[in-house]
């Protein structure tokens, strides 16, 4: 079989799925099914428009918080804490071991530390002059 590498700078979702399929198969053989599940907690305004919220994926009994956005008018009033608590409660209900996420140093690392998250790594100069910081929090229902 002859193989070649082709660059595309506008990959389609179908191409992504074609790359992902053998990885999923391999991961399932090694670790069992991941049971991927998406969740979103939506913050809506008076006209039902989405102004922020939390978007996450459960995979391999961990919740990955991909996005957390609190509307500017609600910052400092507990909205972010409420979103995090709701996500953690849902993760516990679903039997998750823990929660992980990443943020930039100019966003909310202190917010996550205040909520019991421990830093597990950084990428320096991502973006240049800043850091991308990774956090995790093991949920108390698990003994590990």
CATH superfamily: Gcn5-related N-acetyltransferase (GNAT)
Percent strand: 25-35%
| Counted beta strands | 6
CATH-assigned fold name: Aminopeptidase
CATH class: Alpha Beta
CATH architecture: 3-Layer(aba) Sandwich
Envelope shape: globular
Mean pLDDT: 95
Low-confidence stretches: none
User: Structural class of the helix and strand makeup?
Assistant: alpha+beta
The count of domains is 1
Overall radius of gyration: 18 Å
Number of H- or I-type helical stretches = 3
Q: What's the helix-strand series?
A: HEEEHEHEE
Main beta-sheet strand count, sense and barrel state: 6 strands, mixed
Strand adjacency order, main sheet: 1-2-3-4-6-5
How far do the termini sit from each other? 46 Å
**Helix content range:** 25-40%
Task: Write up what this structure looks like.
It contains three helices and six strands, in the order αβββαβαββ. With 144 residues, the chain is an alpha+beta fold. It has one domain: Gcn5-related N-acetyltransferase (GNAT) (Aminopeptidase), CATH 3.40.630. A six-stranded mixed beta sheet has the order 1-2-3-4-6-5.
